[in-house]
């Protein structure tokens, strides 16, 4: 009897081990599936003049006015539609101030760009502005701005501040003048988060600092999870899910019980948004510009009103409200400056930017994951009936490269000629067009693993001297959008072009390296300047423009007839 029980026990243990293995396999599959989810827009930060958009892949996009270089694209050109900011990768937070921007990378690097007349860039000098992001601090964990003209950061739990201090901005009783570099404000408490003048300590205690006090003021509220603050009101989200509120003229925080299960709050000048766990968006406050989004203009909306569902994020600036829904569509209500003095005005939440504005069309490039036909074969490029190239200025060039198999369409039968090109996509075009034998080695870049579809093309480009790891570093940022400068350098190296470093563009001072390669590609008529005499090295490249460059390259090498 005991022997039989032992056998049954062994059998039961085997069954349990088998079930446990299934559970582990399912968990691994679920984790893998989660990791494979598509890129989303995580955050919006907006001033009245420009907007920043953070994507889940760590890239940052920007649109709006750019007279002070606040969009960070290396130019002062205003942008109606979002463009990716070159050179920024692995970004985890963004802040849009008045005509300047801040970006925090996952490794703690803090970048600033834009207007610097008040020292708000923290670069240590009073340059009027910068149009390319510069690192001002490392090891940073949290960033914020006050009234759009002062920068704040936490490093090693300590507060750093810089920028405008002449108008009563936060401080510690120090003289009211501008700081052109980050000043360390010493205090024995270590902080984990900052929002305007409020700082969150490691133990959940809340502190406030003001100009007329020489020390931090501890707020009698504990277990704070997150701070939401504007120049008018402040809300606190506690770990137990409760929300506390302090009015502009108030001294104490009181319970705010109008809403339940709130996960996010955002405030404009005098209007408010809240998002709950279900994704419902609630809005209230000043509505003279329609910023509450209830469908009509009014003096104010006194109680929270539901205005949108399925939201994943909310944001505000002084005069407008924003929300991102779970399909990556951005909605806006209120008054939003577009360009040339014109404004977008609406008193209800209206679709403003679609996923395609950020390269999130929902279709998969055939270069990465070719669709299969009914018999399991991959369609040939020229068998696709592309629906969006007829009548396009680059139609003949696109058709030529389709026939050569150098480029392909998308699975939804589009080519998307006006979409931007990534670095890895352009490298593939170069390698394919020059018929270079692909290497079997793995790229030495840390962010291009052997399993990535572009690895053989990038490794081949390194082997043939098209890409220079000594110059680029140990990361390639394959999904970053390629600039005109990067494209010119890659083409010049691919063709072995040589030339003088003489350039005659009005913005040639922006080209500080590899000038001879840029000059040679221009002299070879592979990449041209613009009619206004500029080269625009930091401008991004569309698929149609990249195709045209490849056609010119093939014409230069006498491999195909030039069809530009």
Keywords:
4-stranded antiparallel sheet, Methylamine Dehydrogenase, Chain H, 8 helices, 3 domains, alpha+beta, single chain
Kindly summarize this structure in a few lines:
The protein has 564 residues and is of the alpha+beta class. It is built from eight helices and 28 strands.
- Count of distinct strands: 28
Mean pLDDT across residues: 81
How is the biggest beta sheet arranged? 4 strands, antiparallel
| Shape descriptor | globular
Helix content: 10-25%
Number of helices: 8
Strand content: 25-35%
Q: How many structurally independent domains?
A: 3
Strand order of the largest sheet: 1-2-3-4
Distance between the termini: 89 Å
- Judged by helices, strands and strand pairing, the structural class is alpha+beta
**Contiguous uncertain segments of 5+ residues:** 21-37, 167-176, 362-384, 559-564
Radius of gyration: 27 Å
